[in-house]
Design brief:
Elements (H helix, E strand, L loop, with lengths): L1 H28 L4 H5 L6 H11 L5 H12 L14 H36 L4 H15 L2 H15 L22 H8 L2 H38 L2 H8 L4 H38 L5 H10 L3 H29 L8
Helix pairs in contact: 1-13, 5-6, 5-9, 5-11, 6-9, 7-9, 8-9, 9-11, 11-12, 11-13, 12-13
Length: 335
């Protein structure tokens, strides 16, 4: 297993290299100059030239890329043009907000999608199965930005039940410990801050979970229907086992490989897909930070964030591989 892990980690290096090169060249090929965007309008031509020299934009593109690559190998993505702070510090500051949102959305999708898919498969062609299929189609095809706007208009604007944006009420939370507001509030015993953070999380987490819930429900249903038609399931029923034991113990055990695959792939897509949701709800995560970097043509910030997203995808896929071996003894991770 150690050999397999080392081989997979070494295999990610060319991927990260190609992604960084592609993003770097694409950013420099796009029209516009960060100095023209970030420098005030009243700045002179000399001020612009000094800014370009300070940021290294006066050097050839490949020289800039080599400098970035050399620093990135030491986990240093340089300084942000827009914020004049280390890119890694900005990412670490915003990363817990995105992870908190993605983890809660995933838990919601798991709590809804898997049970609905199992119940639908155990009652094929029933009214519940048809209703769940329609709900699954709705979840998969629903644009999350449109749903976010509608929920804000109804629940925040009309009924005023939940906040429309942000992450917490100013001054209510204590100094952060981990950056995860829910966890920090529990550790500090600040129950008012916990209730406040939960209110801000409800809408963006629900919107982010809708697509994953629909896909998870449909894939769970399809996988369960295939397993429920196997001979060993009919044998288990012939032995007099209850339908609950047959479905939840025997069938689900062999259908969970596909479920794990969907969860792993969708969690990676969930993190990158949170960019739009974070923008709509003004959620201070790395998705909103990426949009701000793109607007300002902040090359180090954009490239660093893209590499972080790529690394997260790789890590999630690696975890999925190990889960395969954990849930199915027939699968071995060989070097």
């Amino acid at each position: 297993m150690v050999t397999y892990l080392v081989r997979r980690l070494l295999g990610t290096l060319p991927v990260l290299l190609m992604v960084s090169l592609f993003v770097f060249l694409l950013l420099h090929a796009a029209p516009g100059d960060p100095a023209d965007i970030l420098i005030p309008d009243q700045a002179t031509a000399q001020d612009v030239a000094e800014a370009r020299q300070r940021w290294g934009l006066d050097q050839p593109v490949m020289v800039q890329y080599w400098r970035f690559l050399s620093s990135a190998s030491m986990l240093d993505f340089g300084r942000s043009f827009k914020y004049d702070e280390p890119v890694m510090s900005l990412i670490l500051e915003r990363f817990p907000a995105t992870m908190e949102l993605a983890l809660l959305a995933t838990m919601l999708a798991l709590a809804l999608g898997i049970p609905l898919g199992i119940f639908a498969a155990s009652r094929p062609n029933s009214w519940f199965d048809n209703a769940s299929s329609i709900g699954g189609f709705f979840g998969v095809s629903m644009p999350n930005f449109w749903m976010a706007i509608m929920l804000i208009l109804v629940l925040s604007g009309y009924f005023k039940i939940l906040p429309s944006g942000g992450r917490a009420t100013f001054g209510l939370a204590d100094d952060p410990i981990t950056g995860f507001l829910l966890l920090d509030s529990v550790l500090q015993g600040n129950w008012d801050a916990l209730n406040d953070a939960a209110k801000f999380l409800v809408l963006p987490a629900f919107v982010l979970s809708v697509n994953m819930t629909g896909l998870l429900m449909r894939m769970t249903r399809s996988s369960m229907l295939e397993v429920l038609g196997e001979d060993y399931i009919m044998t288990a029923r012939a032995k007099g086992l209850s339908e609950r034991v047959v479905v939840w113990k025997h069938a689900l055990r062999n259908a969970r490989i596909i479920v794990i695959t969907v969860v792993g792939l969708e969690f990676g897509a969930l993190i990158s897909g949170s960019i739009i949701v974070e923008s709509v709800f003004s959620w201070p995560g790395i998705g909103q930070l990426l949009l701000q970097g793109i607007t300002a043509r902040d090359y180090p910030l954009i490239t660093g964030l893209v590499l972080v997203y790529t690394t997260m995808f790789i890590i999630v896929n690696l975890i999925v591989d190990f889960l395969y071996a954990a849930v199915d003894p027939r699968i071995r991770l060989n070097g």
